[in-house]
Amino acid sequence: MSLPKYPEYKDSGVEWLASVPAHWGISQSRRMFAVRSESALASDRMLTASQKYGVLFQSDFVEREGRRVVEVIMGIENLKHVEPNDFIISMRSFQGGIEWCKLRGSTSFHYVMLKPIKHVWPPFFAHLFKSTQYIQALRRTTDLIRDGQELRYSNFAQVDLPIVPLEEQKAIAAFLDRETSKIDALIAEQEKLLVLLAEKRQATISLAVTRGVNPDVPMRESGVPWLGEVPLHWQLSPMKHAVRFQRGHDLPTEEREEGRVPVVSSGGVSGWHNQAATTGPTIVTGRYGTIGEFTLVEEDCWPLNTALYTIEMHSNLPKYLWYMLQSLKHIFILNSLKTAVPGVDRNDIHPTIVCLPPVSEQSTIVAFLDAEIAKLNALGAEAERAINLLKERRSALIAAGVTGKIDVRGVAVSSVTNGEELAA
Known about the structure:
The protein is α+β, with helices and mostly antiparallel strands and 424 residues long. The chain is built from 11 helices and 23 strands. The protein has helices spanning 58-65, 93-96, 122-128, 132-139, 144-147, 153-156, 166-211, 318-327, 329-336, 346-349, 359-402; strands spanning 9-11, 19-21, 25-27, 33-36, 47-50, 54-57, 79-82, 87-89, 99-100, 105-108, 112-116, 161-163, 219-221, 229-231, 235-238, 244-247, 261-265, 268-273, 282-286, 294-297, 302-303, 308-312, 353-356. The strands form 9 sheets. It has a 4-stranded antiparallel sheet, covered by helices on one side. A 4-stranded antiparallel sheet has the order 16-22-19-20, with helices on one face. It is elongated, with a radius of gyration of 28 Å. The two termini are 13 Å apart.
């Protein structure tokens, strides 16, 4: 079913809202929210406002992310107090909206705290301030890229807001909470599938490049713990006999001349040049940064800089070596952790024992992996499409609810998440 509209609408006079239900009002945002400028209390715990998790205690953010954040060390006088049901304008609000805070604590002076004054049911505005239309309206108040500035209260005050009866705000918020939680659960299922597909891809590659594709071939013990048993006729040797890593070639932007030769990094093609530094197929990987990621380039190219390695292949099939190296990602990562700044030294990698099949068998394994990986990639693409559609549906639902394009006051259970279209 389609969700109903309100019986009567009027022009709001506000671009981002357009038409609103006839009984709704319009207000300057500064009449609904004021700035909280109280200094932090000695008992306040530090908060972090994030687009990923919302507002949470900084210690919880560190635990979830598994990494440290920049800590405030300038003293409590430079921190601001935050109360539950405040909203926080952060440095990323122009990207993902304004965050609703449910905690008491303190935060950086870089943030702007908004405290509700009147006509505000916080759960309703939690959705409104994260809606696509509102974020776009907020962006139009400033040119952040040109001015290099942060969003401030003056920006917030330029965007007018709807006045919605409180009971109606509660009904809309409850409806959106319920329906978005259903959509979020579906998104989580698809994201879990993507993780499983990535694991399956890695396992498929690792098995093929260490066992081959013939289940009846005689095996022997490799003597290498992570390799285990390998086909009897495959050759065990140091990696340097299969591939040899060479440093890339610096190419500053000002020296790049437009041409047809791809300039590549470990993340793929980053531009074009008129000269090649390597001839024929090569594999590019990062010495720093994107460690354990490998890009196969099947033509002449220019490896972007000396922070990259290119690979000499010693007559092996380039695509087979590309697959083999992907199975060795853990070796590269472990070797990169030997120094304070993670990086891969080719002298540490070259002695690693690998197991190589004859070149004729390499082509068979490549054909097998191409087919299997294509199937997994297709499933991954379907999951990505499903996620994008669900996110679009979620965004459209929130926008329709907070701007009054649908009337959910009497809706107990909605079938929106089952694919029905929203009322126009």
